[in-house]
Amino acid sequence: MSSRPPLSRRRALRILAAGVSIPLGVLALRRVRGQPQPVQWHGEALGAVAHMTLWHPDPGVAKRAMLRMQAEIARLEAVFSLHRPESELSRLNRDGRIGTPSRDLFDVFDQSRRIAEASGGAFDPTIQPLWRLYAETARSGAAPDPARLAAALRAVDHTRVSASRRAIRFDRPGMSASLNGIAQGYVTDRITDLLGNEGFENAVIELGETRALGHAPDGTAFTIGLVDPLQPHRTSRSVALADASLSVSGGYGLRFGDASRHHIFDPKTGISANRLAQVAVIAPRATLADGLSTAIYVAGESAAPALLAGHASTRAILTRADGTVLQL
């Protein structure tokens, strides 16, 4: 038996990123004569591979903006990161309560509550006990012990989170949260909004989720490739994106043992959701797209129309387990 330590969430996400070079796909850049050349940054945000591409007539302006955006990403890491012991989220998970939360943390919990309620709990921010259990057993390749799984499930319940401007707390012992199913979208929105406020009209921000600010400099939509869920090392189709966001959920990125055990858990059963192979949601904002793609992936095809109906200008591309595709 291996003596290596259990798989950490951060290392697991790096493995995920290495397996599919960008969590969603690839941005197809077109070099157009007479248009500004793109200024790009590549790094990491909340454990995911991150990219930003800006266009501006003055490359120096774009480069300085990149530095400001990197500083903002670092600030938000200190709110949402699970691998930083002194982040707000880590302190909440450790103590079960945090007083006077930042606006960022409160807003994400508030939006999480809305999506959790709309999806009947298919999206649940308190999923972290399941992640921890599966990560601890990942080295053996075996499914978690039923007793330990039942214990973890008792600590998963989005209705037992109390969130206000004064405090956020868990109402049951042993609870903890992971906001990775929505915080990456929030960070993506925050950066895109800042760039828009600074006068940028053409940008693509990929911080775990993707958001296009405006169009490509030639006036066309950006082209984003989607990972093929049945062959995750290649792309299978593309999405045209302009002034919109894209989030993709699929269980192919990180597996615990066999293909049926992966990182997107059904909060009701504690078992990985496998109703669909992939869900891609296109929405005006990345936070919404992020939460909805997870919720639909867990809840399944039958729940998708109602979840999408509550949000204008939102659509989804569902890939079934047999590879057939449904567009809603």
UniProtKB/TrEMBL annotation:
It is an enzyme of class 2 (transferase). Its cofactor is Mg(2+). Keywords: FAD, Flavoprotein, Magnesium, Metal-binding, Transferase. Its EC number is 2.7.1.180. InterPro entries: ApbE, ApbE-like_sf. Belongs to the ApbE family. This is FAD:protein FMN transferase. It comes from Sinisalibacter lacisalsi. The gene is nosX.
